[in-house]
Design goal:
single chain, seven-stranded mixed β-sheet, two-stranded antiparallel ribbon, 3 helices, 9 strands, about 20% strand
Length: about 160
């Protein structure tokens, strides 16, 4: 299955073991489906997280659809400015793209560029050989002590 093309390209989930290695617990998954949610509290595309306020009392997890990443990261930056604490994952192969240059770099607190490639999950099965690296992006908080290899870039003090 091609991670870039096809009707399912936006349904790629974060591997559960990565969530565990990052030490993430009890978060609100703002971009999920009944099949790929990582936490008990979540919204699906039918809940439309772009049109509602995000939780302030609970940290938010976001694995945005690649086809709408700019809009989702704009929303994350806005919600972080209003008090939400957000951790997101996104592909790190196109750092020159507008989403990185106009939204992520100016608004993120820190970015953890993961070592190696992430084996995203679809229909309960891990992928092999995605053609890009991934990054964990933190808004309005600092990275937790994680059991994952990578390079940390702190952007705001």
């Amino acid at each position: 299955m091609n991670i870039y093309r096809g009707g399912r390209c936006d349904e790629w989930g974060t591997p559960p073991e990565l969530i565990e290695q990052l030490g993430l617990k009890d978060m609100f998954d703002v971009c999920a489906s009944p099949e790929n949610h990582k936490f008990p509290d979540y919204w699906t595309k039918h809940d439309n997280c772009l049109r509602r306020p995000w939780p302030r009392e609970q940290w938010c997890w976001m694995n945005p659809p690649f086809t709408s990443a700019y809009s989702f990261f704009q929303k994350a930056a806005k919600e972080a400015a209003e008090g939400s604490k957000i951790v997101a994952i996104y592909k790190a192969s196109n750092l020159e793209a507008k989403v990185w240059q106009e939204v992520i770099f100016p608004h993120a607190s820190a970015i953890l560029f993961l070592k190696g490639r992430t084996n995203y999950v679809i229909e309960g099965k891990g992928s092999k050989g995605v053609p890009f690296g991934s990054a964990i992006i933190y808004f309005n908080l600092w990275p937790l002590k994680a059991n994952v290899e990578g390079q940390l870039l702190r952007l705001k003090i």
